[in-house]
Amino acid sequence: MQLPANIPSYLQMHAAELGQRILESYPPLQGADDALSPLVSRMLRRPYPAQALAIMGISKRWQIARNANVIAECGAGKTLIALGSMLVHSAGRPICGLVMAPPHLVEKWARETFLTLPQMRVFLIDDMRNGGNPREPHGINEVRLRHGAIVREGLHTTLSELRRLGRSGWRQLCPQSSVWCVGREKAKLSYFWEHCYLKSRSGRYRGALINPDTGCPIETDGVRLTPEDFDKKRLHEVVEDPKGGRTKYSALWQADRTKIVRMAPIEYIGRFMQEWWDYAIADELHQLANLTAQGNALGVLARAGKRFLGLTGTLLSGYADDLFNTLFRTNAKGMLADGYDWGPAGRERFTRDFGVIETIERISAEDNACSKKAKRTVTVKRKPGASPLLFGKYLMDHCAFVGLEDISAKLPTYREEVVPVAMDEALKTAYEQMEEEITACLKEHHGNHSVVSTMLNTLLGWPDHPYGFGTLYGFEFNPETKCRERFVIAETADLDTSVMYAKERALISEIKAQLAHGRKCQIYAVYTTKHDVIARLEALMHREGIRVGILRANVPTHKREAWYREQLRRGIDVAICHPKIVETGLDLFASSSSLTRTPCKRFAFV
């Protein structure tokens, strides 16, 4: 028997045995041959078999635990799976679910709810504030589907009114199933704050800053603070009760009543409405893993519902500790039971247990005043990679995995093609000369990060915008002057801006071919700021008589779907934007062809 040469060949050789062992160790809650719930047939959109399997698995998971996740590729139907899971688990009872999604997907969630589940009412949580622009929606507003668009009409209420009613009062007011949607940007927007302290005008503390709660000077390690010490930080003191025996938190900041009077909806929900909803759903879960206000909102959302579901296409971005914050916010009890504490110490231990750590030890000789010693420096770095134990312990038992290949038989045909385009002679000559100069500078200043970053940005961006780069500079520390000094890396050529180069000709030729078949196009371009490739493409297409719409980042995220509808109404042929602007969730069904201007010597279209 031939021994496997590497791990992939080993897995391929023993795939059947390994698959059987996995099924024995982690038996699925719902098998491919198990019967589906009759409630699945009540869905207005019939799920594909793989989606129905995920729906049943999530609903059975909720019967034994409160949290679950759906990890599915873009387009695999995460929204449909989430809505179907609530319907099946509810066993015919009215549904009450809370969804926190990216702002540009809030109205999409409302539309998908109407198209997927019968007899649903949908509410959007717009904000929680006093006053505000009367032309903008405030509070909680019911929405309905009218001619494919979401319009606000129906019941208007507030979170404070819901808290007053309670679940029983709300059931009397709205006995039907309901889904509540809030954008994660609006969910975390709270009030402005200001420092809160007094300045003593008399007595023994005259001139000192005093705490309004105690009347005593504000000190740190026996040193009295001045207004400059406050800066932009929220300070507080832990003071003793005058009657003794207890300590209390004393904030040295307060809400600024001269500005917007509002409260973060998710903060209000966390304080006063825990488990008010039956289900809490976090869309694009991987974007809530950081130590940010939106990330903290995930922990509050998980407590707002009796059952929690996370939706993502990329739960793990390559590092094991990416999961630490997410797991702690959605299942803190389990993480504490495993011995992990919240904070840097717990995160480091989690990385050591399930990730890859690189320890670099440097030893150098140094002279003391009277002796010699070896100076030892230890640097610990995290590296990409995750242990298989991480998947077995924290993912396999509560995650449903769905790929596009699982439903590909039911999807329209899809073609992906890379089209190489040779440079024009003038462009090629200038590019190669610039490449030689940068390469020579890189060898001369080996390891200089400013040269490396300039090289990458220039060699990738210049072919699409062959003018306006000017002289390229790098920076290097001079040990004699103790300063960072600038040096020339290379000189870039400024080619004729009126010439249409080979890649641009190929791009426009492909667009015209697609338009001739009645197919509108979506183009993605990466360089959109200092060297604006989008503006150049717009000018070239106008010259060819192609109607173009440009989506910029200054269009608010929650209005981008409406922007597409308006542009299509105006009759555009091509929409151009940066791929990050529409990277998650937007349905671009009107654009049958998607063309990507890759920052190199070719472009790709699908």
What's this entry about, in short?
This protein has about 600 residues and is α/β, with parallel strands linked by helices. Helix content is about 35%, strand content about 25%.
Describe the structure.
This protein is of the alpha/beta class. Among the domains are: 193-255, no CATH class; 428-491, no CATH class; 502-605, Rossmann fold (3-Layer(aba) Sandwich), CATH 3.40.50.300. 34% of the residues lie in helices and 25% in strands. The longest helix is centred in the last third of the chain and has 20 residues, at 425-444. The protein is globular and about 80 Å long. 29% of the residues are buried. The model is unreliable at 599-606 (pLDDT under 50).
For the record, what is the CATH homologous superfamily label of the domain at 502-605? P-loop containing nucleotide triphosphate hydrolases
Count of helical stretches: 20
Which regions have little confidence, pLDDT < 50, spanning 5+ residues?
A: 599-606
SS content category: alpha/beta
Major pleated sheet = 9 strands, mixed
What separation lies between the terminal Cα atoms? 44 Å
Q: In what range is the share of β-strand residues?
A: 25-35%
Helix content: 25-40%
Overall body shape: globular
Annotation, overall tally of beta strands = 27
* CATH level 1 name of the domain at 502-605: Alpha Beta
Radius of gyration: 30 Å
The neighbouring-strand order within the major sheet is 5-4-3-6-2-15-16-1-19
* Mean pLDDT over the full residue set: 86
CATH third-level topology of the domain at 502-605: Rossmann fold
CATH architecture descriptor name of the domain at 502-605: 3-Layer(aba) Sandwich
